[in-house]
Amino acid sequence: MNKKITLILTALLLVLFSIWWRLKMAWQWDFALLLKNPDDLPLEAAITQMAILPQMTTAFLAGGLLSLSSSALQQIVRNPLASDSTLAVGSGAQLALMAAAVFFPTAGLFGSFWVALAGTIGAMSLVLFIGKSNEMNPLTVILGGLIVNIVLGAFASVILLFYNDLLLGIMVWGSGSLLQDGWATTQALLGVGGFILVPFVLLYKPLTLLGLDDDQARRLGVPVNLLRYTVLTLAAMATALVVSKVGIIGFIGLAGASCAALLGARHFIARLITAFFVGGGLLLLSDNLFSVMGQLIGKILPTGALTAVLGVPLLLYLIIRQRKSLREEITSKPTALLPVYRLPSWRLPLLWLLGLLVMLLLLQGFVRGLDGWSWNGDLQLIWQHRLPRSLSAMVTGAMLAVGGALLQTLTRNPMASPEVLGVGSGTSLAVVAAFLLFPNMGNGGLLLAAIVGSLAVLLLIMWLSVKLSPSALLLVGIAMGALVGGVMAIIQLSPNPQLTAILSWLSGSTYYAQPEKVWLLSLAGIVLISTALLFVKPLRLLSLGMTVARCFGLPVVQCERLILLSVAVMSACATLAVGPLSFIGLMTPHLAKRLGAVTPDKQLPISALLGAGLMLISDWLGRYLIFPYELGAGVIASLLGGIYFLLLIKQRN
């Protein structure tokens, strides 16, 4: 208890110090004039007052509302990972506002609350539609939210590709700009906040009972469905208002709600209030610090995109501190996600391999040009441009698929993959940092940086995996994803040509594939995947548990390290070759299991074939589907794989 009080007091002092520091730098007049009527102040002082005070108030209210809505979502779905980000609520609002600005430019819908509300309700309804038929299973709900997030992000990337100039203002807004010139936004947030808080106070008893099993709550007279939809609507309203007024505020909702739970707020109302003040204080602290930094360097920093800088370390610290309580979270068996069929024999995989090679050859000649679809068998074009791109896509897809299968078996977590657990994010951050710090670094140096970044995240994940449940472990991946999201938003807003050149790589494109490098990548892929096949027997034992594996004489620690190193190198090579991909490693192992490859000796090669085939098709479609424009293979893979995987989950449930 003393440690918690000390932590709370320290956080409060940090917030107060940030307020004082910001005011000291921005307010050049007597502090006694700060709260006076702006009509009685000099013009410059009035402008400063009407900017800084509403901005700080808006930051506190926005962070508080996001955390409050996330805490309410966690209560009704009984899942500590539920939030505006993990349930795709913020992504739905952002996509709806982008689409309204592009397709209805004269309707004046930019920043419309109702458009954002429609997007939030649509995204949340899709996620809950997936989870409802499985009795709101926490694993299914969060998996559905992650996939919907990926799919909506892919649609947003497509819109951004065609309307980049038109959406420049939305990009600034979408990065979480809290700049204000009056109290209008603050008044709107206060009004909605008060409107939302009243139903929560009146319904706190049935909402508390909703934390129980649905059947138990119904026996106690709680209208479960009506109450759940009411809370969902209120949470959607809060998120839609914040997004429509200030843009996407990354990570604050999950961080505030998680901190409230970890600080010991047991009662529902107490947890809501705690989440509101924690989230508000965290966003206010972030905005103050970034405002001061912006004044020192002479640039405006997007607060929403940078909140992960403070939120990620804080949440990871709280996860580690509270690992005992988090270890009790609900888990699910990996085989429960998708229907499983029996794999007839090894003839079918061999036929798949043959079919994949035939498809590779056919797609090199069947292209789309200015005259439409045609067959072009120019060997020089195929050898110099088309084949390197196709091979790069196939090799990276196969490596990420095998890496996902290894991680899912090793951690016994059906949601583990280099993307979801943050391995791809760590790789991306390491490569971007190395590129910015050492722009003349060669490919060897970038590969080393990529391996170090992916291995660092993997080691952190494995260290936490012995202390946390699989569902709580996903917080690490979500945190890393939020961190990368902030970095990408900063890159999009920067005029630096070196930074803007990274965007095409971050979209998962094979555009820069070169013949002399693709053969090295192919050789590396063959060696790494062949090495992974040597782990089949250890993986069989590890899948039975560490104790059983040790009883059979398996050196568990050494095997884990070798497998992690293999996954790190594969993830690094794939990310460095075509950029971060968002879905291959998660989906393909489940598809392999659905086809009957439930043991490691079958799952690894089948996953590799599926990953290679999916990336080959995605790369080809991205090049020719909307010619002369081009989409990244990662975007196409997210759209195809995400929609298909959602249908499979729904079919299973």
Question: In a nutshell, what does this entry contain?
Answer:
With 653 residues, the chain is mostly helical.
- How many strands appear in the DSSP assignment? 2
As residue ranges, the low-confidence spans are: 325-336
Question: Major sheet, described briefly?
Answer: 2 strands, antiparallel
Mean pLDDT: 77
Shape type: globular
Task: Name the structural class.
Answer: mainly alpha
- The topology string of helices and strands comes to HHHHHHHHHHHHHHHEEHHHHHHHHHHHH
Between the first and last Cα atoms, what is the distance in angstroms? 43 Å
Radius of gyration: 25 Å
**Approximate strand percentage:** under 5%
Strand order of the largest sheet: 1-2
Residue share in helices? over 70%
Number of helices: 27
Query: From the structure provided, what is the oligomeric state, counting identical versus distinct chains?
Result: single chain
Structure write-up:
The chain is mostly helical and 653 residues long. Helices cover 74% and strands 1% of the residues. It is built from 27 helices and two strands. Strands 1-2 form a two-stranded antiparallel ribbon. α16 packs antiparallel against α24. The longest helix is centred in the first third of the chain and has 35 residues. It is globular and about 80 Å long. 50% of the residues are buried. About 2% of the residues have low confidence.
